[in-house]
Design a protein that fits this description.
This protein is mainly beta and 187 residues long. The protein is built from 2 helices and 9 strands, in the order αβββββαββββ. The protein has a 4-stranded antiparallel β-sheet with strand order 1-9-4-5, covered by helices on one side. It is elongated and about 60 Å long. The two termini are 30 Å apart.
């Protein structure tokens, strides 16, 4: 009869080993996409002064070389956020470094940047673009009558003049938080 308590203990252990254990895992996924906007015509904060090229000039666009994505993290406690677009006007100096960025809210697609609850999104975008690096934009000066077919290519230019530019970007943020239950059997 001494074995009865041992059998009962073994039966209890077997019963515990076959019980499901529930583990709840919280996940937060932030998605951010960005795209360059075309300059706006007419008035408004996004208005950019256009430069007219001469007959023997070309223009080389700046190329984005390094562009870390904005990271919102804990500064925005919202568990979910439908796709929300905020916009920035980014000033890039003649060496290809971001000099500064300003919120751009006068376009309908950029209006969410003016809402106070989206300040963390705006801050994350500005912190990210401050680290962006470009190859410099340039005005290509060619000899009279020697402008190439591709005026965006400075090869063959007599003089290449790096210039500062203003670019406009839209950032679309989305936060998805879900819960899923992991069922584990056994140990």
């Amino acid at each position: 009869m001494k074995s009865a308590p041992l059998l009962m203990m073994a039966a209890l252990l077997v019963g515990c080993a076959t019980q499901d254990r529930l583990t709840t895992v919280d996940t937060r996924s932030e998605n951010v996409g960005h795209q360059r906007l075309r300059p706006q015509t007419g008035g408004g904060e996004g208005q950019v002064q256009a430069y007219s090229l001469g007959a023997s000039e070309g223009y080389r666009m700046p190329q984005l070389r390094m562009a870390p994505d904005p990271q919102v993290g804990d500064r925005d406690p919202r568990a979910e956020l439908a796709p929300t677009t905020i916009c920035l006007q980014v000033v890039v100096d003649a060496q290809g470094r971001v000099e500064r960025s300003m919120p751009l809210t006068d376009r309908p697609e950029c209006a969410a940047g003016a809402a106070g609850e989206n300040a963390p999104l705006l801050q994350a975008a500005q912190e990210a673009v401050a680290m962006w690096e470009y190859s410099s934009a340039a005005v290509c000066h060619f000899a009279p009558g020697k402008a190439p077919a591709d005026r965006g290519d400075c090869r063959g230019a007599e003089r290449v003049e790096p210039v500062a530019v203003t670019l406009q970007y839209a950032f679309t943020f989305e936060v998805v938080k879900g819960q899923h239950v992991v069922r584990m059997q056994g140990r």
